């Protein structure tokens, strides 16, 4: 029940020694500020690092071939082998719970020798031979036209989809690229689409300087036949590609007569790497809570000590109130309320200050542009609610010992104290 007299007493007690009250409150203010900022910085690091995975389906892996390290069934050590399109079909048919199996071939490189020309302009770009489903594994924003289709695959059409870096290098400003032709290693390809990637797993500049052409066209135009350079494999949602990859390796080793213990298949498990990073940031979040809680605890101890001093200073007042009939709970509740109000006010001020600091950091990041491995430091409302709960519990704990001390005094003994 609201009592104005009680609130007046509490405010008078807190204002009795303003400097002491401010110093006491600063401990809680600083503790909750450190807690929120640590969690925000951890979240910023997490956002920055996971952004490096881009929009690529994280439940995926890449797989390629390497030289054999062991002789097997009469075949020598150091043997090279290649995947082919039949391997892709075998994986799809024999390994369950796979969403996409995309064979890929590549040539060139945007930092290598010039391999693409248009009129008098030339450039060095990364060329990929892909299937249409690759766009679901590596989502991209189509600015114009379309991506590859299965009709392109079946007809082996000489068409291509080019990145913004290719457009910038080979075309004039505001020139429409759709329907025009470029030469890749002397072979003409018609541009049917342009794209950009807002996020990417690797180098954004390299992604912008990339050209996609149909896998079958790539094999025919550049004498690759049905060979597959590597594959991008994605498992269905709810199934980990990490748990399935050994089945895929065993199948490929069996088809290419490779010792089951040979490490002749190279791979990069995106799902495994993503899981490790998530685990790391879970640990960092725990450390943030732990360190912030320790700093906050020092502030709570300070409030508890000050409340003990306040109770001692008001011993005679407590004795008078007890003599006039005040119940022990009435005395205890006032001490607890004073502690709780001081804790919550200082804590909410700390949360507000941390929010301002986070806002300033995001404003600076927006102005200076993206920072490597750090983006959008922030905390969720769950963190704010957790902080409030911590403040309430801390305020009660801070006042509990002083409140018990106040109620243990006998009125007669309290009145005798000068």
In short:
By secondary structure, the protein is an alpha+beta fold.
Structure description:
- There is one protein chain.
- The chain is α+β, with helices and mostly antiparallel strands.
- The chain has three domains: 4-53 and 275-416, no CATH class; 67-97 and 236-263, no CATH class; 98-235, no CATH class.
- The chain contains 14 helices and 14 strands.
- Strand 4 (116-118) and strand 5 form a beta hairpin.
- It is elongated and about 100 Å long.
- It starts with a helix and ends with a helix.
- The model has no long low-confidence stretch (mean pLDDT 81).
Task: Name the helicity range.
Answer: 40-55%
Can you tell me the overall shape?
A: elongated
Strand content bin: 15-25%
Instruction: Please outline the major beta sheet.
Output: 12 strands, mixed
How many domains, as an integer? 3
Structural class: alpha+beta
Poorly predicted runs are: none
- Average pLDDT across residues? 81
Radius of gyration: 34 Å
Number of strands: 14
Helix tally equals 14
What letter string, H or E per element, gives the SSE order?
HHEEHEEEEHEHEHEEHEHEEHEHHHHH
| Termini gap | 34 Å
Main features:
single chain, 418 residues, alpha+beta, twelve-stranded mixed beta sheet, two-stranded antiparallel ribbon, 14 strands, 55% helix
Describe the protein's topology:
Blueprint: H1 4-15, H2 18-51, E1 60-65, E2 83-84, H3 85-94, E3 98-108, E4 116-118, E5 121-123, E6 126-130, H4 134-137, E7 141-145, H5 150-155, E8 159-163, H6 164-170, E9 181-184, E10 187-196, H7 204-208, E11 210-214, H8 215-221, E12 227-228, E13 230-235, H9 241-255, E14 265-269, H10 270-313, H11 315-323, H12 328-368, H13 381-408, H14 411-416
Parallel strand pairs: 6-11, 8-10
Antiparallel strand pairs: 1-13, 1-14, 2-12, 3-6, 3-13, 4-5, 4-9, 7-10, 8-11, 9-10
Helix pairs in contact: 1-12, 2-10, 2-12, 10-12, 10-13, 12-13
């Amino acid at each position: 029940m609201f009592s104005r007299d009680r609130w007046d007493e509490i405010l008078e007690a807190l204002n009795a020694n303003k400097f002491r009250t401010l110093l006491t409150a600063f401990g809680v203010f600083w503790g909750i500020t450190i807690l929120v900022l640590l969690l925000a910085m951890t979240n910023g690091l997490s956002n920055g690092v996971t952004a490096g995975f881009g929009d690529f389906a994280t439940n995926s892996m890449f797989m390629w071939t390497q030289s054999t390290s062991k002789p097997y069934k009469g075949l020598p050590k150091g043997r090279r082998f290649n995947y082919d399109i039949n391997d892709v079909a075998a994986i799809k048919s024999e390994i369950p719970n796979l969403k996409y199996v995309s064979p890929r071939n590549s040539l060139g490189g945007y930092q290598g020798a010039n391999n693409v020309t248009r009129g008098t302009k030339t450039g060095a770009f990364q060329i990929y031979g892909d299937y249409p489903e690759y766009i679901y594994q590596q989502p991209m924003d189509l600015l114009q036209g379309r991506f590859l289709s299965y009709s392109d695959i079946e007809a082996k059409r000489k068409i291509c989809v080019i990145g913004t870096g290719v457009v910038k290098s080979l075309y004039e400003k505001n020139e429409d690229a759709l329907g025009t032709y470029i030469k890749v290693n002397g072979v003409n390809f018609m541009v049917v689409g342009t794209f950009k990637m807002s996020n990417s797993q690797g180098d954004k500049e390299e992604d912008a300087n990339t050209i996609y052409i149909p896998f079958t066209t790539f094999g025919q135009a550049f004498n690759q036949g049905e060979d597959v350079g590597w594959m991008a494999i994605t498992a269905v949602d709810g199934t980990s590609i990490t748990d399935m990859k050994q089945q895929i390796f065993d199948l490929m080793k069996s088809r290419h007569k490779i010792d089951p213990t040979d490490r002749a298949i190279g791979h990069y498990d995106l799902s495994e790497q993503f899981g490790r990073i998530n685990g790391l940031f879970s640990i960092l979040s725990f450390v943030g809570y732990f360190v912030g809680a320790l700093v906050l605890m020092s502030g709570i101890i300070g409030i508890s000590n000050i409340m003990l001093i306040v109770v001692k200073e008001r011993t005679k007042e407590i004795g008078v109130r007890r003599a006039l009939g005040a119940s022990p709970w009435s005395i205890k509740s006032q001490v607890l309320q004073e502690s709780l109000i001081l804790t919550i006010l200082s804590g909410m001020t700390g949360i507000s200050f941390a929010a301002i600091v986070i806002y300033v950091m995001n404003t600076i990041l927006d102005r200076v542009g993206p920072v490597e491995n750090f983006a959008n430091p922030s905390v969720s409302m769950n963190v704010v609610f957790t902080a409030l709960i911590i403040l309430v519990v801390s305020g009660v704990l801070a006042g509990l010992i002083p409140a018990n001390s106040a109620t243990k005094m006998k009125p007669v003994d309290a009145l005798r104290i000068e």
